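Hi F.,

I've been meaning to write this up properly since the lab meeting, where we talked about keeping a consistent format for the predictions we share between groups. The idea is simple: the sequence comes first, exactly as it goes in, then the structure tokens exactly as they come out, then a line or two of notes. No screenshots and no reformatting. I'm using this chain as the first example so we have something concrete to point to.
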Amino acid sequence: MVLAKPFYGDLGQFMLRKHAILTESLIRRIRYLGYSGLYIVDEYSEGIEPDFVVSDELKNSTAVAVRQFMSNLQSAQSQNINVLTRNVNQILGLVKSLVNEIVASKNAVINIIDLKSFDSYTYQHSVNICVLSGVLGSAMKMTRNELFDLAAAAIFHDIGKLFVPKYVLDKPGPLTIEEFDEMKRHPLLGAEYIRDKFQFRPSIYVPVAQHHERHDGTGYPNGLLGDSISANAKIIAMTDTYDAITSRRPYHDAIMPHEACEYIMGNAGSHFDPRAVHLFFRTVSPFPIGVSVQLSNGLEGIVFKNYSSFPMRPLIKLKPEPGQKSRYLDLCNDPNALNVTIQKLV
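Output, unedited:
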């Protein structure tokens, strides 16, 4: 078994090169570290080329920069505005590079599972939201400057959590009313911090302040409703929720990407702007090319192609029986497959 792409660790560090041979002991070690899957090359996956919107190297460099900034902000360096400004400028430079790669990408559908290539939630989450939001903004035909502001707001959207007590952030059970009130302060704390310390413009700090507002007015901190919420905040609210519920946290287990998509769809018009949800489903694939799946008819296969209009119904390359050639099952266009669904990733 051979690795199809470089493998990075939980802090973005390089761990295994592309084409590395995966021994049984190495696979056990990777599982022990908490990783759920890898891209491999074998006879079964021949001819399948996963598409990646941005490079692993750039994502991991961005995560490392975010980690350094957060570390400095929580240490004695928090009073050294020159150090923090250098950190922020480095992050913004990397955000610009992310935007450039997103614009240059010819992929119509983003591989969301690929975004979870390392396991340090705080830094990974910021990068994931930046990329997901940027891809949605690109699909909306935003200019590069507009995309940059969206991506910058996304990368800093949770910066206010650094000013919330750690015991509240990491509490494994439900928060008390007082603790939740403390948590609800983080959007405004973050927005005020990046505005006052680094002179961020409104198009960046306003979405940070509003990313927990909800379309129906049930969000926080101000209970804003509908179009009183900025368009960028609506995008970040949705991508933030998606990535959070598909990630393992102290207070909940991760759910599968297709289950998260159903949650997003079910909250269109309530928590999320229906227009943003529609765009999300044309842009984000819960079953990206190259992942192994089990179907409701008992067969297994690999996702071979996605359809942007029907992201839950990809073309599947079925796992062949011994001595037989591979067959394909088109969940979108084959009338005999209308009652077949993807049950789980394998």
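Notes:
The two ends are 16 Å apart (CA to CA).
The mean pLDDT is 87.

If this format works for you, I'll send the rest the same way.

G.
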